[in-house]
Automatic annotation (TrEMBL):
It comes from Sphaeramia orbicularis. GO terms for cellular component: COPII-coated ER to Golgi transport vesicle; endoplasmic reticulum membrane; endoplasmic reticulum-Golgi intermediate compartment membrane; Golgi membrane. This is Lectin, mannose-binding, 1. PANTHER family: LECTIN, MANNOSE BINDING 1 LIKE, VESICULAR MANNOSE-BINDING LECTIN. Residues 240-259, 349-368 are annotated as: Disordered. The keyword Membrane applies.
Length: 368
C-alpha cells in the first residue's frame, strides 16, 4: 500500500524504476576527463569521484549540473543527497533542484537562469528579507514569465514551503521530490541520523501542471557569504501507476553492439585457449591447475599494479628519507662548524677585551 502523509493507506504504490541515464552517484561519479556520464556541468561546479561541488565556499560563485537529455516520464521521483556547509553561522545563497524545459545553464536564481519553464525546489540559506525565516525550502513554479523575487526570498511566489535548517548537518541531507498524479511532494531527511529513510514531510502542491518533457538540474550560488554546496548523488526513478505498463527501457545496448562484443569476447577466449595449448606443448611437465595461475586475471593484474605502485611509493619515501638524513647530517656539520667559529670568536672577543684594556697602555706608550 502507498501511504499518504496522514499515514492512511490510500492505494497501491506505483511501480518505481531507477533511471541511470538521469542519475549520478559515487564512487565513480566523475570520469577521468572530469565529466559526469549523461550530465553536463557549468560555471564553478567541480565534479569528483564521490560528489559534485556545485560551488566552493568562495564569494560570488555559480555552478550547475544538468541532464544532457530531456526526460519524458509522466510520473517521477528524484532523490538528492547533499551537504551545505560553511564556517559562518549564516551562509549563502543556496541550492536549487530543477525540472525545466531548457537547461538554465547560468543566471541569478541560485546560479541558474530566471524565467524558467517548469519547477524549482529551492534550499534558500540566506535571509534576504530579514524576516528570520531562513534557511527555508520552497517550491516555485514558473511558466517562463515570472521573475524570481530574490530580495523577498520568493515569499509571495512559493507554492509550498517549509522551514528547515539544512546547513552543517552531521550526515548528508536528503530531499525526495515526487511528482505523481499531478501532485508535487517534497520530503526531507534532515541529516541528523545515518538512517537514509528518515524522511519528514516538507511541502506539497496539488494540481500542479508541469511540462511533460524537461531537463533535471541542480544549481547553487554564493554571495558575500559563501557555503560549499556539495551534491553526493542525484537518483531519478520513473513511476508507473499500478496495473499500467511501465515505459520500455530506452537504454538497452543495441543488438549489433551486443553481437560485436560477444564476437570479440569469443575471439579473445579462443586466443587464450590457443595460447594455453601452445604453452602446454612447450612445457609438457607443467600439468593441470597451475596453468590457470600463469594467466593473470584482470583482478590479479589490478592488485599487482596497486601493489607495485605502493612499492614504488615506498621506495621513493625511503629515498627521501635517506636524502633528508643526508641534509640533516650536513646541517649538523654546519652547526658544529658554526659553533666552533662562535666559540673561537668568543675567545677572540675575550682576548679583545684584554687588548682593549691594554690599548690605552699601548697608546700611552705610543705617545711617549
Ligand atoms: Ca534568500
Ligand atoms: Ca527570508
Amino acid at each position: 500500500f502507498f501511504f499518504n502523509h496522514c499515514g492512511t493507506a490510500t492505494e497501491q504504490a506505483p511501480h518505481r524504476r531507477f533511471e541511470y541515464k538521469y542519475s549520478f552517484k559515487g564512487p565513480h561519479l566523475a570520469q577521468t576527463d572530469g565529466g559526469i556520464p549523461f550530465w553536463i556541468h557549468t560555471g564553478n561546479a567541480i565534479p569528483s569521484a564521490d560528489q559534485v561541488r556545485i560551488t566552493p565556499s568562495l564569494r560570488s560563485q555559480r555552478g550547475s549540473v544538468w541532464t544532457k537529455n530531456k526526460v519524458n516520464f509522466e510520473h517521477w521521483e528524484a532523490e538528492v543527497t547533499f551537504r551545505v556547509s560553511g564556517r559562518g553561522r549564516m551562509g549563502a545563497d543556496g541550492l536549487a533542484v530543477w525540472f525545466t524545459t531548457a537547461q538554465g545553464l547560468d543566471g541569478p536564481v541560485y546560479g541558474a537562469a530566471d524565467h524558467w519553464n517548469g519547477v524549482g525546489v529551492f534550499f534558500d540559506s540566506f535571509d534576504n528579507d530579514g524576516k528570520k525565516n531562513n534557511p527555508a525550502i520552497l517550491i516555485v513554479g514558473n511558466n517562463g514569465n515570472l521573475i524570481y523575487d530574490h530580495q523577498n526570498d520568493g515569499s509571495t511566489q512559493a507554492l509550498g514551503t517549509c522551514l528547515r535548517d539544512f546547513r552543517n548537518k552531521p550526515y548528508p541531507v536528503r530531499a525526495k521530490i515526487t511528482y505523481y498524479k499531478k501532485t508535487l511532494t517534497v520530503m526531507i531527511n534532515n541529516g541528523f541520523t545515518p538512517d537514509k529513510e528518515d524522511y519528514e514531510f516538507c511541502a506539497k502542491v496539488d494540481n500542479m501542471v508541469i511540462p511533460r518533457e524537461g531537463f533535471f538540474g541542480i544549481s547553487a550560488a554564493t554571495g558575500g557569504l559563501a557555503d560549499d554546496h556539495d551534491v553526493l548523488s542525484f537518483l531519478l526513478f520513473s513511476l508507473t501507476e499500478p496495473g499500467q505498463q511501465p515505459p520500455p527501457p530506452e537504454s538497452e545496448i543495441p543488438k549489433e553492439e551486443k553481437d560485436k562484443y560477444q564476437e570479440e569476447f569469443q575471439n579473445f577466449q579462443q586466443e587464450l585457449d590457443k595460447k594455453k595449448e601452445e604453452f602446454q606443448k612447450e612445457h609438457p611437465d607443467v600439468q593441470g591447475e597451475p596453468i590457470e595461475d600463469l594467466y593473470e586475471s584482470v583482478n590479479d593484474r589490478e592488485i599487482r599494479q596497486v601493489f607495485e605502485g605502493q612499492n614504488r611509493i615506498h621506495l621513493e619515501i625511503k629515498q627521501l628519507h635517506r636524502q633528508l638524513a643526508m641534509i640533516l647530517d650536513e646541517q649538523r656539520r654546519y652547526v658544529s662548524v658554526i659553533t666552533d667559529e662562535v666559540s673561537k670568536k668568543a675567545t677572540n672577543v675575550g682576548s679583545g677585551q684584554v687588548h682593549m684594556s691594554t690599548q690605552p697602555m699601548l697608546t700611552h706608550k705610543g705617545s711617549h
